[in-house]
């Protein structure tokens, strides 16, 4: 059993902790232990914190495992598989840290002092509302986690060139793949949501996460809403999160969720004509790759044509 560090101890009754850490689990028993073990040292330098794990109706014993490994964490049963944004909101409705909230995937392993570095970043400038760490894969390689806003031209670029080649041209790709860009203070329209620190002032302005996406695009939506409210996203390489990822590219269901929600997010922010054009480009992209025999893209194409995705894999 992990020792209970002072920094992770929940604030006393009636007192807000400095930081709230929130994670949403779903059948996460195989991955959650390294995540929990990293939190005590990751919170070094934080005066008080509350760690909340919202479980979306796991059937693999995740809640009991979390309680056993981390008795200092608050485990909340969501009452069903609500999706990622809705799961986060279960915790956020119970309270946000006095200085901010850190949203984490349950397979993200943070470096020592990472939370302090992220908090310092949003505290250093009123314009910075979201801070994100350097994300590495399990081999220690940099993951290109910073993104540009989705546009129709970028959708065309990715359909024609592919995501990696389109990324060479800022107007044609949403992924920022230049390693030289990943320095302290780099900004982006959004970032992959494995780890995002949101300042209290930003949360007060932007509010809860959207619950309309179930999975994927909610971090894009939140970062863009923060930008709309006047807050920037900033990159903090001194804070590190090791995050394996990769499931999406192997799972037809997850790829379908991503594809459908890309179009849903675009439609949320644009008019009907532009949204229809964006949908057509995404459908064409998936159709071409489905014709090459790729099952993930075939499943996404079916979901896009149906206009919906199944709620589970």
Structure, described:
The chain is α/β, with parallel strands linked by helices and 313 residues long. It has two domains: 6-144 and 182-245, Spore Coat Polysaccharide Biosynthesis Protein SpsA, Chain A, CATH 3.90.550; 248-306, no CATH class. It contains twelve helices and eleven strands. The strands form two sheets. Strands 1, 2, 3, 4, 5, 6, 8, 10 and 11 form a nine-stranded mixed beta sheet that branches. Strand 2, helix 2 and strand 3 (74-77) form a beta-alpha-beta unit. The radius of gyration is 19 Å and the shape is globular. The model has no long low-confidence stretch (mean pLDDT 92).
The name of the CATH topology of the largest domain is Spore Coat Polysaccharide Biosynthesis Protein SpsA, Chain A
Give the uncertain stretches in residue-range form.
none
Largest sheet: 9 strands, mixed
Structural class assignment: alpha/beta
- What shape does the CA trace take? globular
CATH architecture of the largest domain: Alpha-Beta Complex
Report the strand count: 11
CATH class of the largest domain: Alpha Beta
The CATH superfamily of the largest domain bears the name Spore Coat Polysaccharide Biosynthesis Protein SpsA, Chain A
What is the number of helical segments per DSSP (H or I, 4+ residues)? 12
- Average pLDDT score: 92
């Amino acid at each position: 059993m992990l020792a209970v560090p002072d920094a992770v101890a929940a604030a006393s009754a009636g007192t807000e902790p400095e930081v709230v850490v929130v994670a949403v689990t779903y059948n996460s028993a195989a991955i959650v232990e390294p995540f929990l073990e990293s939190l005590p040292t990751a919170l070094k330098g934080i005066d008080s914190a509350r760690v909340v794990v919202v479980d979306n109706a796991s059937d693999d014993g995740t809640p009991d495992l979390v309680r056993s490994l981390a008795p200092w964490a608050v485990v909340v049963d969501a009452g069903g598989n609500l999706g990622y944004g809705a799961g986060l909101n279960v915790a956020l409705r119970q309270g946000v840290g006095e200085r901010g909230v850190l949203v984490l995937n349950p397979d993200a392993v943070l470096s020592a002092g990472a939370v302090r570095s992220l908090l310092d970043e949003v505290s250093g400038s009123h314009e910075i509302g979201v801070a994100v760490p350097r994300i590495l894969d399990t081999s220690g390689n940099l993951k290109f986690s910073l993104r540009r806003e989705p546009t129709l031209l970028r959708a065309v670029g990715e359909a024609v060139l592919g995501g990696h080649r389109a990324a060479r041209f800022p107007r044609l790709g949403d992924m920022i793949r230049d390693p030289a860009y990943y320095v302290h203070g780099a900004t982006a329209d959004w970032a992959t949501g494995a780890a995002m620190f949101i300042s209290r002032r930003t949360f007060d302005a932007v509010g809860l996460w959207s619950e309309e996406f179930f999975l994927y695009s909610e971090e894009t939506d939140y970062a863009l809403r923060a930008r709309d409210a006047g807050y920037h996203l900033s990159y903090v390489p001194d804070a590190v999160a090791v995050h394996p990822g990769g499931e999406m590219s192997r799972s037809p269901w997850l790829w379908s969720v991503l594809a459908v929600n890309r179009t849903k997010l675009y439609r949320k922010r644009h008019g009907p004509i532009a949204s229809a054009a964006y949908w057509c480009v995404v459908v064409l992209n998936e159709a071409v790759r489905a014709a090459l025999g790729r099952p993930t893209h075939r499943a996404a194409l079916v979901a896009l044509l149906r206009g919906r995705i199944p709620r589970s894999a």
